[in-house]
């Protein structure tokens, strides 16, 4: 059973991107400034990068006054020197008086399922990737400004946007796609009218316009099918409120799953989203919707008016459509193909040999194995990054999933909290965010054969 709050999958040879928000090759946890991580369900760290091998960085690095607290266990594949605390020494275990890692990390744990991507283990609950259901409703957005008065009547009901394929078009008389981001034009935007589970596909990404706006997601699956010009999938102004249709602090709806991918999303080795987008967008093949950074990329600094409350798919799979019932509890899912590490599209395994085409292993000359897999070719080396902003009012419920070879960037001076579990390649904290992962009620179950004496 995967029951940890924070699962960091990247291994010592796994590269990350080129920006200063990328943690670096082999780095699983990088806390700078005054960031704090609390993982009451425990932490798993797969990388063996350590300073004893001559590296200036390690699998976990704490700078400034960064700390890890209220984390009962932290299991490392690597040795003591794979965890470097404030001052450049091995993580201090004398919290709370002066240390930076309250409960002692446990080094040198044996490899095995503990440090594998839990969604790809060969069990009855193995997940390919979430399948996309065609909403069978095409919604061109003239000029790219999304308002209830600016889209076809079949895409609006009761002042809310109905399930469909949304993209920026040239005009109301010309449905040719422009590839531009969709811009929220109304003060309040609501997806779904509360009548059931909806399927939405957005090509080109989103951005809010200046000023305070409220965006509400109804129950459903929201597919961000790539952007152009390396734009992020979702850009948010400060002062924006993002929520769903749950009332109070409990889940009463089917919830939502936000899937970040491209125009070529493939979920089981044979199906692809390009088929439905080709039928919906006249010039889809010319637009080339590529991977953009997922999550929510916030503009500017912190703002007390910014708020985010989202619930993943309902924990009870019987309440969900059969297509997504196996993904109950998941809130964010990043396409495994948007990673520096090559995943097999058919079974989700890590490809280490033979590498396809001209692709080589991450470190040519080293033996090909789980620690030295094939590199994945990406148009944008920074697209595997997912962004979240810690605001004074951020409450996320469910699983956040990114594949090995991706990383999560958290910024801001507020907190990210709630019943959240994070599975990602690496975690980067900048500024002073506090990450409090209280964990969801349902773990990911892994079936194994064992002898009981």
Structural class by SSE content: mainly beta
**Radius of gyration, CA atoms, in whole angstroms:** 21 Å
Overall 3D form: globular
Provide the β-strand percentage band.
25-35%
Low-confidence stretches: none
Distance between the termini: 20 Å
Please give the number of β-strands: 33
Mean pLDDT reading: 90
Largest sheet: 15 strands, parallel
- Provide the helix percentage: under 10%
- Number of helical segments? 2
Q: Which SSEs are present, and which pair or pack?
A:
Elements: E1 6-8, E2 29-31, E3 36-38, E4 43-45, E5 60-62, E6 67-69, E7 74-76, E8 83-84, E9 138-142, E10 145-146, E11 156-157, E12 160-161, E13 164-169, E14 182-184, E15 188-191, E16 198-203, E17 206-208, E18 214-217, E19 220-225, E20 234-236, E21 241-244, E22 256-261, H1 274-280, H2 284-287, E23 294-295, E24 297-298, E25 307-311, E26 330-334, E27 385-389, E28 394-401, E29 407-411, E30 415-416, E31 420-424, E32 427-429, E33 434-436
Write a concise keyword list for the protein shown above:
about 25% strand, about 450 residues, about 0% helix, seven-stranded parallel beta sheet, 15-stranded parallel beta sheet, 2 helices, mainly beta, globular, single chain
Describe the protein.
With 453 residues, the chain is mainly beta. Helices cover 2% and strands 27% of the residues. The strands form five sheets. It has a 15-stranded parallel beta sheet that branches. It is globular. It starts with 5 loop residues before the first strand and ends in a 17-residue tail after the last strand. The mean pLDDT is 90.
């Amino acid at each position: 059973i995967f029951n940890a709050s924070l699962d960091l999958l990247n291994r010592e040879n796994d590269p990350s991107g080129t920006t200063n928000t990328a943690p670096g090759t082999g780095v699983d946890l990088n806390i700078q400034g005054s960031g704090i991580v609390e993982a009451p369900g425990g932490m798993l760290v797969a990388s063996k990068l350590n300073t004893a091998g001559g590296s200036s960085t390690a699998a976990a690095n704490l700078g400034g006054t960064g700390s890890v607290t209220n984390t009962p266990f932290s299991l490392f594949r690597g040795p003591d020197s794979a965890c470097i605390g404030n001052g450049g020494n091995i993580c201090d275990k004398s919290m709370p008086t002066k240390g930076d890692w309250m409960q002692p990390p446990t080094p040198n744990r044996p490899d095995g399922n503990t440090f594998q991507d839990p969604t790809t283990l060969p069990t009855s609950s193995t997940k390919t990737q979430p399948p996309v259901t065609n909403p069978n409703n095409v919604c061109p957005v003239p000029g790219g400004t999304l308002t209830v008065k600016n889209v076809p009547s079949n895409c609006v009901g009761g002042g809310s946007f109905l399930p469909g394929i949304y993209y920026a078009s040239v005009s109301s008389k010309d449905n040719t796609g422009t590839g531009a981001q969709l811009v929220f034009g109304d003060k309040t935007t609501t997806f779904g009218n509360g009548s059931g589970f909806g399927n939405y596909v957005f090509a080109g990404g989103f951005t809010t316009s200046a000023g305070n706006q409220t965006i509400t997601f109804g129950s459903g699956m929201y597919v961000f099918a790539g952007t152009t010009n390396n734009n992020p999938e979702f850009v948010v102004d400060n002062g924006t409120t993002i929520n769903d249709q749950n009332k109070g602090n409990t889940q009463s709806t089917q919830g939502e799953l936000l899937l970040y991918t491209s125009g070529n999303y493939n979920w089981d080795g044979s199906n692809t989203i390009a088929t439905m987008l080709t039928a919906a967008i006249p010039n889809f093949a010319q637009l080339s919707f590529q991977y953009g950074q997922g999550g929510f990329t916030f503009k500017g600094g912190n703002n007390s008016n910014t708020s985010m409350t989202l619930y993943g798919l309902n924990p009870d799979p019987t309440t969900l459509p059969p297509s997504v019932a196996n993904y109950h509890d998941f809130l964010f899912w990043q396409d495994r193909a948007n990673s520096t590490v090559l995943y097999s599209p058919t079974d989700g395994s890590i490809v280490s040999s033979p590498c396809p085409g001209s692709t080589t292993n991450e470190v040519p000359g080293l033996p090909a194995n789980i620690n030295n897999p094939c590199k994945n070719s990406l148009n944008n080396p920074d697209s595997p990054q997912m962004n979240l902003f810690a605001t004074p009012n951020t409450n996320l419920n469910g699983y956040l999933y990114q594949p090995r070879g991706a990383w999560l960037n958290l910024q801001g001076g507020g907190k990210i909290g709630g019943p959240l579990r994070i599975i990602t390649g690496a975690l980067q904290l900048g500024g002073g965010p506090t990450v409090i992962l209280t964990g969801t009620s349902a773990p990911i179950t892994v079936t194994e054969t064992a002898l009981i004496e």
